[in-house]
C-alpha cells in the first residue's frame, strides 16, 4: 500500500510533573470543543451513507479489472474473491484468507520489523473463516439493490465505521483516532463538502511509544460532514474518535493581520556568527542546560557537527508569531521543555490534511492540533518547533523559546539537536506557494546560522550522519513532506546557502526607490466597486486553467482572454473553494443566473456547470452524466436537481439526483437507480429537454469520460443508408434519451423478407413511452408471429375453395395445425439463428446496426426485431419488457440481464450470445460471471 503523506509527531521525550501556569491575564483564550466517540463497531446509519463502502484509492489500485467484461462497475458490494481477485493485503501462512495491511506495514516489511512487533492481531489466523466458507458467503446472496454489507466494494472487511458527523463549515476543525493497542488495521477518513464526498484518505498510525497510540491529526476544511472507518478483522481495543472544533476567536483575525507573510530577506554584509553576541533573553551556547534534561536519550555528542563554520554569517530572524497570538492554552501542556546543546540540522515536514483552509482558520488549526496532541494523545506539547502556513506566515509551535535548541517531537529518533519546521497542508501533488518556501528557507537559514551551522554541513544525530537540511522522509518511512515539496529541497538548500554566505539583514532598513505604479489588471479593474461584496483580497493573482484567479474573503474573480472577468460567490463560491472542484471545473465562463425551477440558480464553467437550489445546495455536473441529465430536461425533468457531484474512476461515474441515482459504466451506458439503491428499470421518461431551460446548452460535447467509440456517437456511427443514427440530442450511453428513441428501422435494407417488421421500430421512435407496456406488444398476434409467414399462407386457399383438388392438397395442413409449443420453439429457433448469423459484428457503444456495430442492447433489439418481437432500446427497459422467470425455467432464446448488460441464452447450457465489449465483440460465451452478480432471467418469447 503506498504510503500516505504524513508528518505526525514521532517521539515524545520524558517530562517533569510540573504544570506550566496559564497564559498571562488579558491574553485571548479559546476553549476548543472536543467530542469523543467509540469507534469499535459498525454504525448502521453510517454504513448506509452514500459511498461508505467505496474502495479507497490505495485498495482500488490492486483491483484486476481484466477478468470480466463488467469489472466492479455496476455490481453489488460483494467481495472481489467472488471474481477470483484479491484486495490489497497479505495472506496468513497456510491460509488463503486475506489480512488487510496496516498503515505502517509494507508487503516486505517482515524482515525489518521492530523487536516485539506483531504481524497480525492475536488469534487472527485461527479465527479467519475457511476459504470455502468465505467463498460461499460472498456468492450466496448477491445484492443488486445496494443492500448493506459490512465490506468495502472491493471486499475488505469494515471492522468499524462512524455515523456521519457534523463539522462546522465556516471554519476548519481537526479529527483523529486513538486506541489502546496497535492492531493490523487501516484507518481512513473522508469529508463531505458542497461538491460531495471526498475519497477515503488513509490516516497513518503514529505510535511513538509514549502517550496513547493513535493516528496523525487530520485537518478538515471547507466541509460540512466527516466520517471515519476502520478496515480489518476487528477494531483495536478502546478505539476512540476525536472531533475537535477549535472555534473562532475574536483575536484570530488580529493575529493573522499582525503576522505579515515573511518577505525574502535582503542581503548585505554582516559579521560572522562567532562575533555576534547571544540573542537577547537567551543564554550563551556555552552555558546551555546540560545534564539529564539536555542530553537524555539524545545521542548528542558535543562538537559532532562536521564543521564548526565560523564563516557563516548571521541571518536575521524572520517574523514568527508567538504561541500567545494563536491562543495556545498553556495549561494543556505538561512538564518543562527539554533542550539540546545546539541545533545541528533542520527537518522539513508537512502536517497533512486539507489545503483549503483560509488565513483566518490558521490560529484555530494550530489550537486543534495542539489539543489533539495533548488531550487525545497525552503528549506534553505540540510536536513541531515552528509551523508555516500556505500564505507565508510563520508560527511558534513547541514552547521553550524560539532562540533556544528546544527538543521537539517531530521525527522518531532524531528530535534532539534538530529544528522541526512543518508547512500546514498536504503537498504530494503540488508544492507549497513560493512565499511559503521562502519563509521556510529564511527560518532555517536563521536557526542554523545562529548555531554556526552551514547548510552544506553534515552532522551526527541519533547515531547517524545526516545533511544539515533534510526532509522527514530522509529519516523515516513516510512520504513527508510530500513528493512535490520534497522535489524542491535542492533549490531550498541553494537559497539557504546564499543567505548564509552573504548574510541577511532586516528588510526595510534601506529604502528602495519606489517603483512606478503598474497598470491595473483586468481582475483589479473588475474588483473596483465590489469591495463590500467580496471583501479584501486574500491572495495575489494566481494561475489556473489557462487564466488567472484572485481569492477574496467572500468569493473569487476568475479571468482569461476568452471568458473575461467573472465573479464567483455565495454557495457556488463555497463549492469553488474546494481545490479538487476548482481543478475539475476550471474558470467561470459566465455570471451566475437565477430564475430556475424552485428559485434555483446556476453558473457555467469551462468543464461543466454548478446548479443550486434551496433543497440540494450547490452541486456540480459535467461530462456524460451532465449530457444524460440534459437529455431528460435538466432540473425540469424527472431527475430534478443534482444532490452530489459526479464520483468517477476510469470506468465508472456515479451521481445522485433528486429523482434517481445515475451510474455510467464504460461500454454499458447510463443506468438509473432509485435514490435509495433499488433498481428502477421500469421508470419511463415523459420529460424532454425544454426550450429555454436555463442551462440547456451547458453540456460540453465530448467532455465525458468515455473513450473513442464509446462515448456520444459521432460521425462514424453511420447507419446502412448513410444517415447518422445518433443524431438525437446528447445521448450518453444506453440510458440516453437518444438511444431510447433510436429505432432499428435503419436496418430496412436487410429486412427484405419481412417488410412489415420495419414498421415496429418506427412506432417506437414516436412512442418511447412504450417501454412501460411491453406486455401488450408480446400479446399482439401480428407482432409476435410476424416472421412465421408460412403459417398464414395456407389460409389463402381457404377463400378460393371452388377447386376441390386444391382443397384436398391443403387438407393435411389444416388437419394438423402446429401446437403453441411448436410455434414457440420455431420462434426460439429463429431467434437463435439470427443471433448466430451476426457473430463477429464489432462492438460499438450506442450502435444498433450489424454494419456499423452495436452494443449489447442494440444487438438484442435487432435480433428480436428480425423475428417480429419489438423490444425497447436500453438494457433496463428490455429487462422489464418481458416476464421474470426462474433460472431453472430459462430456455434458449430467453434473456439474461444484470444492470448495464444483457444477452440471449444460447442452445448450449450456461452460454449466451451477446455484444460484450470491444474485446469480445459479438460472440457466444459463458454467462457465469453474470450469475455472481445476481443475474435475472427474462422471457419475451411465448
TrEMBL record:
What the entry lists under PROSITE patterns is as follows:
NLPC_P60
UniProt entry tagged with the keyword Protease: yes
Keyword Nucleotide-binding assigned to the entry: answer is no
**NlpC/P60 domain mapped to chain residues:** 825-941
Where are the coiled-coil regions? none
- Keywords from the UniProt entry: Hydrolase, Protease, Signal, Thiol protease
Which residue stretches does the UniProt record annotate as biased composition, category Low complexity? Answer: 54-69, 117-143
InterPro entries (alphabetical): Amidase/PGRP_sf, Amidase_domain, LGFP, NLP_P60_dom, Papain-like_cys_pep_sf, PGRP, PGRP_domain_met/bac
Give the Basic and acidic residues compositional bias ranges.
508-520, 795-826
Where does the signal sequence lie? 1-24
Chain residue ranges for the region called Disordered: 44-74, 105-153, 253-295, 499-520, 676-826
Q: Where is the composition biased (Acidic residues)?
A: 717-727, 754-788
Q: Which family does it belong to?
A: Belongs to the peptidase C40 family.
Mind telling me what this protein is named?
NlpC/P60 domain-containing protein
Amino acid at each position: 500500500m503506498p504510503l500516505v503523506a504524513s508528518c505526525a509527531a514521532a517521539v515524545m521525550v520524558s517530562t517533569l510533573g510540573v504544570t506550566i501556569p496559564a497564559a498571562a491575564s488579558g491574553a485571548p483564550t479559546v476553549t476548543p470543543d472536543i467530542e469523543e466517540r467509540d469507534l469499535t463497531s459498525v454504525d448502521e446509519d453510517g454504513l448506509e451513507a452514500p459511498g461508505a463502502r467505496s474502495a479507497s484509492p490505495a485498495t482500488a489500485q490492486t483491483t484486476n479489472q481484466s477478468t470480466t467484461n463488467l469489472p466492479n462497475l455496476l455490481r453489488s458490494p460483494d467481495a472481489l474473491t467472488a471474481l477470483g481477485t484479491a484486495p490489497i493485503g497479505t495472506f496468513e501462512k497456510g491460509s488463503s484468507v486475506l489480512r488487510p495491511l496496516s498503515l505502517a506495514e509494507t508487503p516486505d516489511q517482515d524482515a525489518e520489523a521492530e523487536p516485539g512487533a506483531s504481524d497480525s492481531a492475536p488469534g487472527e489466523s485461527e479465527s479467519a473463516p475457511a476459504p470455502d466458507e468465505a467463498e460461499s458467503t460472498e456468492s450466496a446472496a448477491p445484492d443488486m439493490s445496494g443492500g448493506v454489507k459490512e465490506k468495502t466494494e472491493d471486499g475488505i472487511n469494515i471492522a468499524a465505521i462512524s455515523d456521519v458527523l457534523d463539522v462546522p463549515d465556516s471554519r476548519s476543525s481537526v479529527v483523529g483516532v486513538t486506541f489502546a493497542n496497535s492492531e493490523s488495521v487501516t484507518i481512513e477518513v473522508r469529508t463531505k463538502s458542497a461538491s460531495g464526498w471526498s475519497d477515503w484518505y488513509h490516516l497513518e498510525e503514529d505510535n511513538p511509544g509514549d502517550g496513547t497510540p493513535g493516528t496523525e491529526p487530520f485537518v478538515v476544511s471547507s466541509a460540512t460532514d466527516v466520517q471515519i472507518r476502520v478496515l480489518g478483522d476487528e477494531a483495536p481495543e478502546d478505539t476512540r474518535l476525536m472531533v475537535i472544533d477549535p472555534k473562532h476567536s475574536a483575536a484570530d483575525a488580529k493575529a493573522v493581520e499582525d503576522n505579515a507573510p515573511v518577505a525574502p530577506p535582503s542581503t548585505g554584509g554582516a559579521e560572522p556568527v562567532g562575533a555576534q553576541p547571544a540573542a537577547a533573553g537567551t543564554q550563551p551556547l556555552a552555558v546551555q542546560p546540560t545534564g539529564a534534561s539536555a542530553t537524555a536519550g539524545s545521542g548528542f555528542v558535543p562538537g559532532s557537527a562536521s564543521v564548526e563554520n565560523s564563516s557563516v554569517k548571521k541571518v536575521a530572524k524572520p517574523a514568527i508569531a508567538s504561541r500567545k497570538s494563536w491562543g495556545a492554552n498553556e495549561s494543556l501542556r505538561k512538564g518543562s521543555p527539554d533542550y539540546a546543546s545546539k541545533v545541528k540540522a533542520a527537518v522539513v515536514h508537512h502536517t497533512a490534511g486539507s489545503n483549503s483552509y483560509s488565513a483566518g482558520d490558521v490560529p484555530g488549526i494550530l489550537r486543534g492540533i495542539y489539543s489533539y496532541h495533548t488531550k487525545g494523545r497525552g503528549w506534553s506539547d505540540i510536536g513541531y518547533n515552528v509551523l508555516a502556513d500556505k500564505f507565508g506566515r510563520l508560527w511558534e509551535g513547541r514552547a521553550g523559546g524560539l532562540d533556544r535548541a528546544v527538543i521537539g517531537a517531530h521525527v522518531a529518533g532524531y528530535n534532539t539537536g534538530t529544528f522541526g519546521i512543518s508547512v500546514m497542508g498536504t503537498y504530494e501533488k503540488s508544492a507549497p506557494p513560493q512565499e511559503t518556501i521562502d519563509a521556510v528557507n529564511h527560518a532555517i537559514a536563521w536557526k542554523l546560522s545562529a548555531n554556526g551551522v552551514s547548510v552544506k554541513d553534515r552532522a551526527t544525530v541519533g547515531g547517524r550522519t545526516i545533511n544539515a537540511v533534510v526532509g522527514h522522509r530522509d529519516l523515516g518511512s513516510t512520504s513527508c513532506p510530500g513528493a512535490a515539496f520534497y522535489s524542491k529541497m535542492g533549490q531550498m538548500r541553494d537559497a539557504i546557502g546564499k543567505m548564509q554566505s552573504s548574510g541577511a539583514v532586516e528588510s526595510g532598513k534601506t529604502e528602495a526607490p519606489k517603483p512606478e505604479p503598474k497598470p491595473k489588471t483586468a481582475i483589479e479593474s473588475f474588483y473596483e466597486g465590489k469591495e463590500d461584496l467580496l471583501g479584501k483580497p486574500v491572495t495575489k493573482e494566481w494561475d489556473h486553467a489557462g487564466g488567472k484567479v484572485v481569492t477574496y474573503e467572500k468569493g473569487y474573480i476568475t479571468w482569461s482572454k476568452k471568458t473575461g472577468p467573472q465573479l464567483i460567490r455565495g454557495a457556488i463560491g463555497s463549492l469553488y473553494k474546494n481545490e479538487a472542484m476548482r481543478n475539475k471545473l476550471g474558470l467561470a465562463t459566465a455570471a451566475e443566473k437565477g430564475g430556475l425551477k424552485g428559485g434555483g440558480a446556476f453558473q457555467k464553467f469551462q468543464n461543466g456547470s454548478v446548479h443550486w437550489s434551496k433543497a440540494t445546495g450547490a452541486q456540480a455536473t459535467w461530462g456524460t452524466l451532465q449530457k444524460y441529465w440534459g437529455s431528460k430536461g435538466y432540473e425540469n425533468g424527472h431527475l430534478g436537481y443534482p444532490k452530489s457531484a459526479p464520483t468517477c474512476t476510469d470506468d465508472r461515474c456515479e451521481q445522485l439526483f433528486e429523482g434517481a441515482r445515475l451510474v455510467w459504466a464504460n461500454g454499458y451506458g447510463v443506468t438509473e437507480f432509485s435514490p435509495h439503491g433499488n433498481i428502477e428499470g421500469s421508470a419511463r421518461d415523459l420529460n424532454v429537454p425544454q426550450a429555454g431551460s436555463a442551462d440547456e446548452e451547458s453540456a460540453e460535447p465530448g467532455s465525458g469520460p468515455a473513450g473513442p467509440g464509446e462515448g456520444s456517437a459521432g460521425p462514424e456511427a453511420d447507419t446502412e443508408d448513410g444517415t447518422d443514427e445518433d443524431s438525437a440530442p446528447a445521448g450518453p450511453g444506453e440510458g440516453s434519451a437518444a438511444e431510447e428513441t433510436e429505432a432499428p428501422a435503419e436496418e430496412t435494407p436487410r429486412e427484405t423478407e419481412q417488410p412489415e417488421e420495419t414498421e415496429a421500430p418506427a412506432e417506437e421512435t414516436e412512442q418511447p413511452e412504450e417501454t412501460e407496456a411491453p406486455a401488450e406488444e408480446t400479446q399482439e398476434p401480428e407482432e409476435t408471429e410476424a416472421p412465421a409467414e408460412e403459417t398464414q399462407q395456407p389460409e389463402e386457399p381457404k377463400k378460393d375453395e371452388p377447386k376441390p383438388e386444391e382443397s384436398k392438397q391443403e387438407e393435411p395442413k389444416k388437419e394438423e395445425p402446429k401446437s403453441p409449443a411448436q410455434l414457440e420453439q420455431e420462434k426460439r429457433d429463429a431467434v437463435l439463428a439470427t443471433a448466430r448469423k451476426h457473430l463477429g459484428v464489432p462492438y460499438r457503444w450506442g450502435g444498433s446496426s450489424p454494419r456499423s456495430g452495436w452494443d449489447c442492447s442494440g444487438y438484442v433489439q435487432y435480433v428480436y426485431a428480425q423475428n417480429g418481437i419489438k423490444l425497447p432500446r436500453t438494457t433496463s427497459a428490455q429487462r422489464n419488457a418481458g416476464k421474470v422467470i426462474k433460472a431453472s425455467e430459462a430456455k434458449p432464446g430467453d434473456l439474461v440481464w444484470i444492470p448495464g448488460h444483457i444477452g440471449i441464452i444460447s442452445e448450449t447450457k450456461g452460454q449466451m450470445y451477446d455484444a460484450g465489449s470491444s474485446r469480445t465483440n459479438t460472440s457466444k460465451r459463458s454467462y457465469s460471471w453474470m450469475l455472481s452478480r445476481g443475474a435475472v432471467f427474462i422471457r419475451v418469447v411465448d
